[in-house]
Amino acid sequence: MRSPTLIALGSELRRYRLAADNMTQGQLAKLINYSEGMISNVETAQKVPRRDFVERCDKALKTGGALLVLHGLLKHETHPVQSFARYAEAERDASGIHMWDVVVIPGIFQTPEYARALLTAGRPAARPEVIDDLVAARIERQGILTRDKPPVIWAIIDESVLRREIGDKETQRAQLDRLAELAQQPGINIQVIPHAAGAHAGLTSSFTILSFDEAPDIAYSEDPATSHLHEKPDLVKALQQTYEALRVVALPVSASLDLIRQVREET
Description:
Elements: H1 4-19, H2 25-32, H3 36-43, H4 51-61, H5 66-73, H6 80-93, E1 96-101, H7 112-122, H8 128-140, E2 152-158, H9 159-163, H10 169-183, E3 188-193, E4 207-211, E5 218-222, E6 227-230, H11 233-249, H12 253-266
Helix pairs in contact: 1-5, 2-3, 4-5, 6-8, 7-8, 10-12
């Protein structure tokens, strides 16, 4: 089910575009430096646009910020599939991904069995079809790892993530095998912060920073009820500084792979 707010945003974008001397999608695309296909997908509510896209449309069409108001309402919609889709859309466009997780294996690295066990435990009241949708959406994201030009990925995880059993032992072992396999792929860098590091800057929350070739960086975080895309430069900068502090205390990539394999043997 598509978001009513997303449908309204697409309809208003089309209305303002046509009101501007019957401007075509191609003409607007040139003005805002986005593809014509992106404009079509937003107008038909097929894609959730980033704030940068909406701001450029507002400016080009002289809407007085009307589209940005609708865009802001999207973050208040709580349907889990819709919320997750907003992040997944931005992730598909990213050229670089920096992830920090203190609780579980990052979603982009999860096996289907691990993802299902995790999502089921985290949403005990959710209907089975909702869990199915969430698992499918999470696994679909992994297509970016094998595309022609995949993003460069840096993932930092806490050692507790490796040792926390999600699902049964077979599920956990398969997940650690998958993580070790990914850690050896070009363009994927996985570092582990060992227990011996003690207190560090990332103990309170997990987050992801997405980088783009032609747009500002954004950040993403989530809690059990909602997910959040952060686009304010000051907040993104603060999370980037936290990420660098975590990288300082993390094990090097090779030593991290050794630890992943060690925990796998112990599981």
